[in-house]
Each structure stands twice: as structure tokens, then as C-alpha cells.
Amino acid sequence: MSINYTWTVTNLETLSSIGEFNDVITTVVSQCRAETTRDGEDWKYEELFFTSLNTSNLDSSTFTEYSSLTEADILSWVFSIENKSEIEAFVGGAVSGDSTFTAPSEKALPWS
């Protein structure tokens, strides 16, 4: 069974400026979707991931203007921070029928 993974950037959080730099991305919200066909049925599962970017050492020689960025550029930053293989294994577990997969759930805050 093959699993197809699709990564997309769903949101970008920015600061209007840091020093000489404008529209600085601080957080990337990305989505990993896994899809496959198992036992004659289509299965899909997706998860959102929040990746914080280090903005403490911005460099004018490597800084890319916001309007010039592509989704591929931003995903390359995400993959340099997050472990893409581990994320895909986790998301893929939901569609593969892996009996050890447990989807995350929300839990009430302990102080509420």
C-alpha cells in the first residue's frame, strides 16, 4: 500500500518589522495530509503543525522579501527544523491501519 503525502502552508504569522526587515515570518502553520486506498476504501488524515522560526539573527544577504517567497521556500524552512519523516510516519499511521496509531485529542486545562 502506498501512501501519498501532501504538504501545504496554511498560515503565516509575521511581525511588521524587526530592525531593517519588514514582514518577518515568525511562525509557519503547515499541514501534512496522508491519503491511501486500503481494503477498497479511500482513507485520508491530516494534521496541522506550528513551526516557530528563529528571528534573532536576520541577515540581509539571506533575507527574502515576503512578496518573493514561495510555498516551497517556506516548507524548506519547516523541514530544516521539523523531522519530516517522523511527521509523515505519524500521519501515515492513521491511514495505514497501524494498530499503534492514536490520534491526539484535546484535554481540559488542569487549572480550569
Describe the structure.
This protein is of the alpha+beta class. The chain has helices at about 70-80, 85-95; strands at about 5-20, 20-40, 40-50. The chain has one domain. The chain is built from two helices and three strands; from the N terminus they run βββαα. A hairpin with a 2-residue loop joins strand 2 (about 20-40) and strand 3 (about 40-50). The N and C termini lie far apart (about 45 Å).
Number of domains: 1
> Could you state the order of secondary-structure elements as H and E?
EEEHH
Number of E-type strands: 3
SS strand fraction: 35-45%
Task: Tell the overall outline.
Answer: globular
Give a brief outline of the structure.
21% of the residues lie in helices and 40% in strands. It has helices at 71-81, 84-96; strands spanning 4-18, 21-38, 41-52. It is globular.
What distinguishing features does this structure have?
112 residues; 2 helices; globular; alpha+beta; three-stranded antiparallel sheet
Q: How are the secondary structure elements laid out?
A:
Elements: E1 4-18, E2 21-38, E3 41-52, H1 71-81, H2 84-96
Antiparallel strand pairs: 1-2, 2-3
